[in-house]
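dumping the sequnces here before i forget
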Amino acid sequence: MRLAEAWRVAVTALRANRLRSLLTMLGVVIGVAAVVVLVAIGTGAKQEVENQVNGLGANLIIVVPGKLEFGSAPTKSRLELADADRIGRALGTPGQVAVTLSSGETVRFGNNSAFSTVNGTNPAVPEVFVRPIARGQYLRESDVDTRRRVAVIGSGLAATLFEGADPLGRNLSVGGVRFRVIGVFASVGSSLGSDRDNEVHIPVTAAQRLFGDRTVDAFALKAPSTDEIEGVRATALAVLADRYPDEEFSAVTQDQILGTVGRILGLLTTVLAAIAAISLLVGGVGVSNIMLVSVRERTREIGLRKAVGARTRDVTLQFLLEAVLLTTIGGILGIALGVGGALGLSAAFDQLPAVITWWSPALAFAVSAAVGIFFGVVPARRAGRLEPVVALRSE
Amino acid sequence: MTGQHVTGPAAPALEAIDVTRSYQLDGVTVEALRGVSLTVGRGDYAAVVGPSGSGKSTLMHLLGGLDRPTTGVLRVGGRDIAALTGDELAAVRNATIGFVFQAFQLLGRTSAVDNVAMPLVYRGLRRAERRRRAREALERVGMGHRLDHRPAQLSGGEQQRVAIARALVGDPQVLLADEPTGNLDTRTGMEVMALLEELNRNQGVAVVIVTHDLDVAARAHRQIRVRDGRLEPTPAPTPTPDPTSPAKQHPGRPTERHLTGEVAGRGGTSS
Ligand SMILES: Nc1ncnc2c1ncn2[C@@H]1O[C@H](COP(=O)(O)OP(=O)(O)OP(=O)(O)O)[C@@H](O)[C@H]1O
Ligand SMILES: [Mg+2]
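..and the predicted 3d for all of it:
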């Protein structure tokens, strides 16, 4: 009952000073809103990356030369096309190892041209990656074997070069060499910053000649199931270690990529949210300040309550509740503002996908309540400790 | 509850034995009370008079357990307050004492009935029960028709009645009123006095009232004269006190113990 009464008194007190209460809340409102928005955008970015990485296909393993460490320079590849067969044989799945050798080239058709990523690949690509074909077909083994100058192009590139006309069977120029279009990819959007609808796939052998290169950049493998990822990874590395004893290779899984990207984004989100949380602290100081004013203003009320029987903790609790009420109402307003702001931002800007997780508003609410307790405790204890006589005598 | 008296119903409601109260003010000791002994028994009706600054309010605060004496023994509801923690003392006040202040001390944003019910919050009573008792108390002081008025919507006399209802609501043994008519005009003041006297007569509540108004003081059963922090001897209570010479000195100077024992009535003389 005393608690109920304390709530009633706290609500009455806040209502009596509506404008002041609102202004005091503002710091908390802004702080909470900022944290909610930043966490939503950070989470959205992370989820977007996850979608893109997972959209490549399931249980992927990418094998690249060198040590894959954040900040280390890319290593020149010594991998050969034949290594793909070796790995495939070791795994018992020949023809299931995708290779890639890429370079940026200018692609032309008639008067239209575009700069796009040209990937030299093999027929394993659609087996490993999710890469649906909209029209025509993908590269075949014979195309690779005979170094045939055929190309499969992304839907975006098709639109740019052919402007609605049917690209199939047409010849376009890739880095000055004529290639015949045999297929068009279905649109898959962009992934990890590269526009995959703007790619050109040509047989890896044709690419090696075009780029004047005898190596390939990387291999991509698909494990039959999640459980077998580690085994496939180990086998692939073992094959390469056997063939190139004094070189290092890395086999990264999607989980590793996601882990790394997730850590970076997570750190970024945390840092931004922490900066935003500073305004929450400032808001808390404001609450503390106003509560001290409130205690002073209501010194006589405190004296009276103590005179008629209020204990120290009754008074302390009353003022603590008032502070907590102030910050939690501010927290709720801040959550509403933050959720609205995050959704509004992501609606307005494609690059800002915001995802509201259940825990961020819950955490924001808990933190605002904690701010109330933390910053309310000093004024509340001061109120509780007032001597009834001193308080009653005050004018 | 802690507020129950422990020494039986015969114990005086309030008892001060040689209490002093001094304040430290900028390194200087101000002795507001310099050794006062006093008993307030059940059903007592006493007026505390004396010049400004003589220590009347200080005495009232001590008697009401709002403050603690620097030296001496103070018993409220039969309990030595030196042995009580602040919270225990609060409970004793809640159960034993009703305070009436010169400035009413009502909560401005709160209705009359909730103002009156406030002390019961700290007794742990339910809201419905609190309001029921508060309504009763307001009816007893003739304010049953103003339950939902706020202090600002009441006259000074009405506010003081509400304050008296608040002092009464917990069924105290003693009402301590520090200049309860000080902010009221003469007529309203007399009405408030009549109310206090009626409560004293009909309900047996002891009333101690500080006043500068000699007419008010004259109505009490006895007068406690304070000067420079001490009690002055007063003549034995007379049925018709002479209002023209309130500070008249009594030649034979009885001891304070004698004085209080005499006027405290039944069971007051413990020595
Ligand atoms: N908190 C305090 N600190 C220092 N001195 C105090 C304090 N309270 C009271 N005094 C002093 O104690 C003395 C008695 O004060 P008290 O208020 O009891 O007088 P009073 O008889 O009630 O006067 P009045 O009739 O004007 O109300 C005064 O000299 C006063 O200045
Ligand atoms: Mg006074």
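Chain B touches chain A at residues 61, 64, 66-67, 86-87, 90-91, 93-95, 99, 101, 105, 107, 109-110, 118-119, 121-127, 166, 170 (CB under 8 Å).
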